[in-house]
């Protein structure tokens, strides 16, 4: 048999598998083109859209109402807590239920047990008294001679509870003196507010003197009150109040007179 001669032109052409697959894919439309890529929906956007449709997403006004309600509830809880705290400290003043007292306040023949730590926190005067080598610190006893027993009890009641009870014109004056002496600023403010609320032409002169002694703000209030109500010095000069002030507190009388002049000049310029 003769040998078979291989001729390149007669070789069997095997198909290219890669090209064949690509051709078939194109024919079937399975090759993805960027323009044919399936667009998956945005799930977050869809959920938000559905929530809005169902009314599950609160609008801005609803959120504001909710925030306001939370703030009000929080404030009520805080006020209730402060009230309970005040009542707890009030019990510390009761001789029968109080405990751990470590100092005695003596006033008008009466002895009142108290707590150094509370007095020190509430009053810089007591803090200096108990924090330095003074006899009150060693003896654990304080003699109080310049205020009466009822005023001392009212002072302690405020220092322990932050409250006052049954203020009158007389008690507010005494408490203002005690609060100023022991530097209980909040109590000074309470007393001054009470005196402002109850001021009249009959007691404003007393308020003026109290302000000059204990509170610049109360003094300014009384001066303004007199200027607004009286206006002219001729209205004042023959009153017993002015004569008494000029005799007993001449410096304060001159301050008031200067304020009256300034008030009149300011009124004329309008």
Automatic annotation (TrEMBL):
- State the SMART domains in the record: BTB (SM00225)
Q: Name the residue ranges with Low complexity bias.
A: 1-17
Pfam family, any one: BTB
| Residue span(s) of domain BTB | 101-168
Recorded hits in PROSITE patterns, A to Z, give: BTB
Q: Which Gene3D superfamilies match?
A: 1.25.40.420, Potassium Channel Kv1.1, Chain A (3.30.710.10)
InterPro entries to which the protein is assigned, alphabetical = BTB/POZ_dom, SKP1/BTB/POZ_sf
| Annotated spans, Disordered | 1-21
The protein's name is Speckle-type POZ protein-like B
* Species, as recorded: Araneus ventricosus (Orbweaver spider)
Gene transcribed to yield this protein: spoplb_13
